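---------- Forwarded message ----------

FYI, see the Sodium:solute symporter record below. Original note from H. follows.
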Amino acid sequence: MAVDYLVIVVYLAGMLAMGWWGMRRAKSKSEFLVAGRRLGPAMYSGTMAAIVLGGASTIGGVGLGYQYGLSGAWMVFTIGLGLLALSVFFSARIARLKVYTVSEMLDLRYGGRAGVISGLVMWAYTLMLAVTSTIAYATIFDVLFDMNRTLAIVLGGSIVVAYSTLGGMWSITLTDMVQFVVKTIGVLLLLLPIAVVKAGGFAEMKAQLPTEYFDPLGIGGETIFTYVLIYTFGMLIGQDIWQRVFTARSDRTARWGGTVAGTYCLAYAVAGAVIGTAAKVLYPNLASADDAFATIVKDELPMGVRGLVLAAALAAVMSTSSGALIACATVANNDIWSRLRGIVRPEGEQHDEVKGNRAFILLMGLAVIATAIALNDVVQALTVAYNLLVGGLLVPILGGLLWKRGTAQGALASVAVGGLAVIGLMATYGILANEPVYYGLLASLAAYVVVSLATRPTDAAVLAAWRERLAGRGAEPENASETVSEQVPAAQ
């Protein structure tokens, strides 16, 4: 394993080096949080694909293939569909807003009163997303070094926190591009063909496995529908995804670069399912489906290649973890703390925005590592995060983009009713049940429509300022500490 260890160590050292290089570029809030909004198509496509394809998409996607066959691709496939929908229908408008967070968009659209509660919901989502990604280090480092779970989480989490804190989005962008290349080579170009060959080819796989393993809908229609509801719609509204859209240098980059990334996700979904199906032929009696990826890598790949593929798994986890971490810190600082700071800090007092955001990444990173050590059930944590995100925020966000009659009161009611309904229904039906997100989303929609129609329409000046920003004519604030909510009264 010496060669494999060397590959991993060189990879991790490279991540830290890029964090140091990114620190030299991140001199302003825009540079630190959204890479100066300057990414071109190639860089944008690679980093977008890297952040959405994490440990769940790689290790979990192979595990679903092991359990269900080709239909196990549906989870990652719906992520790709969501990214395609975001890129084709919404990304250009989102990029033109020139904001930093989803809650700032809500403030701009509804008049500066909808962002606080939405910021809390988004912060909880991004925190849990970062935690679940961080827990995945335990699996990978256990395969590599037979390492204690807590030590593995601390080691992997510390590297991500280090390069994210140093250079912000520039460091994360650079590391994500490397991670994208490593994942492409390790999973698509090496592990996929080797797994199929080791299993005897597709003909042998079909002969060895039940026919339902090759049924595209074998996982079940209800499961596919739930994946669409949670992951496809989740891609449309997550802060971690939007923050990458904000890095695009133009509308065209956001639209076409995201379309390429979404298409890549569809191919990655199929590859993971095929690898899992091959693993089922090779190892029919694994104790857990999620062990399929690590087992086939450890037992079937040659020296050196094994290290590269494990680096690919590590890359998948790190890209999602770092993206969720900077999203969590951005929301915590810009949507929650900045509002409290605006109350207690004398107006006009100057402070270093980059230093403040860097401190929040470090603080949130330590919180993520501590939570990951204490938490055991990754699936339940991720389910809670996505249920809250979709049930609480999908309707007011898409409603604000698509329905001009939506009001701030309707948005607040939608977030509160949807979020509380999801929590209550999870307590009643169970965290992993489908009903909470179904009924929570319906409750959120009903509250949004009813309350919006029952209250006064959004002020014409607010809507005019909103349309200006959607058209790309609104200037990005020169003072990095200025919030969108502070700009709206000026527009009035």
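H. also flagged this: Confidence is low (pLDDT under 50) at residues 343-350, 477-492.
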